[in-house]
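Assemble and predict.
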Amino acid sequence: MNGHLSAVRFRHKIFKGRKRQMQKKMKYSEQLFLYELRDIVGDDNVYTDSIEKKSQSLDVWWITRYTMFNDVEIPEPLAIVFPECKEQVVEIVKLCNNYDMPVIPRGGGAGDGGGTLAITGGIVVDLKKMDKVIELNKKSLTVLVQPGMLQKHLEEYLNKHGFTMNHFPASYHTSAVGGFISTNGTGVLSSKYGKLIDMVRKIEVVLPDGKLFTSLPVSHHSTGPDFSKMFIGAEGVFGIVTEALIKVHPMPEKRSFLAYLLPNLEEGIEAGRKIMVNGLLPCIMRFYDEKDTEHILTKQYNVEGEGCFFMVGFDGVGSVVDAQTSEADRIFKEAGGIDLGDKQAWKWWNNRLKSYYPPLDYVCEPWMTAVTDTVASYEDIEKVYWAMKSAVEDGFEKYEAVFHAHFSHWYDWGASFYPTFLVKDIPKDKEEALDVYHRMLSACARASIDNGGVVNEHHGIGIRNGRFIKEIYGEQSFAMIKDIKEAIDPKRILNPGKLGL
Amino acid sequence: MLFNEKTTETIKMCRCCFMCRHACPTFLATKLDSHTPRGYAINLARINEGMADWYEEGFERLFHCSQCGLCKELCEFSWPEDEMVLEGRREMIKAGKEPAVIKKAAKDLMKNRELENDMFNKKIYDKKNCDILYIAGTALKNGQEDIIRSVCEIFENTKMDYTMQSIEDISGIILSELGYTEDADKWIKGYFDKINALSPKRIVVSCAHTYDFLKNHKNLLNKKDITIEHVLEIIGEKIENEEIDFKKEKEEKVMYHDPCRIGRGHGIYDTPRMIIEACSGGSVVEFHHSKDEAECCGAGGCVNLTYPKIASCVAAKRIEQAIDEEVKTVVTACPNCKKVFEEAAEQKDIDIEVLDIAEYALKNL
């Protein structure tokens, strides 16, 4: 089923809520399928109860929150299965091929685009029991790890041995390595250490027909295209990750942070660009627009004054860090930045996850919200920002829509920013509420695409942004992606309806 | 809304938040989202807003939560998810919809309340105005005579004036943890009447659950200057006063598991470590997460009593760390922790010895 159409059908299909969950009558073929599934993984690894299904139905996407707590039916899988090894994953996929049963791979399930929802039915393959470190290689500085390991647990393991992966996203506590690979995730230190595509050296996946693909033992070679990249950011539509070899680093000798208040957005972006293009290699660059500065930082970190908060950090060998810090300081002061001292920056670093706890996080409120992280080149980024801001605040003035953003992942060719749109007073009518959400999302995304931006930078596409994929790539390029999908997965069993496919 | 304002607020805050999932011991054992504070909150929200009822398959998982409080500890804003789950249990029980295994456990508890304590000479029991009333608690309920004997031997060796109750009844503590609040409330006066009748100066317990319960209900004790102490605090006091000494024949690697109810519950971390170091001659080998971040053994919240398979899975996750650290001895300070670790070690064929702190101290005296 076309991902766009399925998303449209899903968002317009509103059922009357039920007070009591009735047992649905299962078809004989489904019963047989479940019997064979239990034969592969054991009874203790197959769940069909509504409590677990409901718990897994809620990711970070506003739509799943809205529909669940407004008693709108959310599509549920037939079953949730927990394989314990790659061999079981292979057998599960082969079984699903026999039954034409969709397979939805799931790690932490904390994405914000419905990427792990079973919108066309099928089963969820929850990889969290595959959570082992297989090998830490201290010579080549790599770790071979299974996809279900939570990032925090992997980092704790590495720290115990004097290493770090340097991957610290907001979902650090809760998401799994396989999920980060599948969405090509990014953490706060990405400006220096990159995205998952930069960190993965080798990958093993179970293909839609049950075959196992293993990429070459090294990631930099000239032995044909690097096919491992095909699965990074693919959100499980081309294969299920069962193992990954990931780069690790020794713990840095020194880490330093600086914080400044820049006069406006333009000066801040330019200061950030200069730092990146001059090869200063910051590990972290975090720049907040006026509204975000006011909203998050004044309330949480007591940052006073008007302007835009900018935080930058360097890590590594002590003397190099000192030189980098000194040059960055010069650039910021040239841009009119007021030095806030490193105390604010360290406070941000030590409390960087605090704003994701309720009541600080929007998710605990019924407000309509979305993050539409976007990445663009330096010549386009400011244009994209103002276009998206106008699309939301001018286009949806009736709903008092608010737009605020911070710039969080910087490259030597451009940057990404993390815009949030917010409507506190949601229309009471459910159809209208969903309609406003989708129109606002479309307006925001298209403002980015029309001005040279790419949606998304690190949250993945899922269902939410699937309908923009064709626009982002263009018809012919998208046709090539569809052809690959049809060649590799002719039965369309792997994560159907996601990534616009 | 079915739940009170505080629980409703906790449900609202926690149902969409993933931030403590990584730490929940039950989740770490089963990997089910419905075994996390968020999972509990989502489904309690559905009940609260009339979108579900208790008949749905899976609601029994409210009784798989070990009530360890680690979620609350790690939450930046200390949302009381453990209390939220307990409220869920209470409402389910009020509605008469609790699982059959819970109903049976409660019925058995109420039918067989009294635990006969007849290990020793009759002279020991029910003495009034003693220095110490020693309550064995779950050590007696679990039949862990070794723990009780070790404690009494330490008392004897240090010439302490102590007594015990010939009949103990901790049924109300267990009923309270299960969620049978009304039944626990009916039991409580009788429990404290019996203690007050003996009028000790100090109450000393082996069991972390009894310790926590007594501390939280101290106002029901007549003597206002009465102290409630865990056995390990007495041992620690004896070491500091140089009233006892240890062999220290050879240095051994020992891990200490912090029971939730005395560790996170009451901040007792240093004394047990001091005791172990005094005995072993070396430093305690810490679990990966210890002290205020220690994962539960799995026995809390009566899970070992009602869903032993779940408790055993949780315990195995914890005890397996001893293999990684190449440690042969794990010491703890709660009979329930000891029991569930021993059972898990046996099932998983893990070669370790699990000792209560009193047993460990006596072994090295």
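Residues 181-198 of chain B form the longest helix (18 residues).
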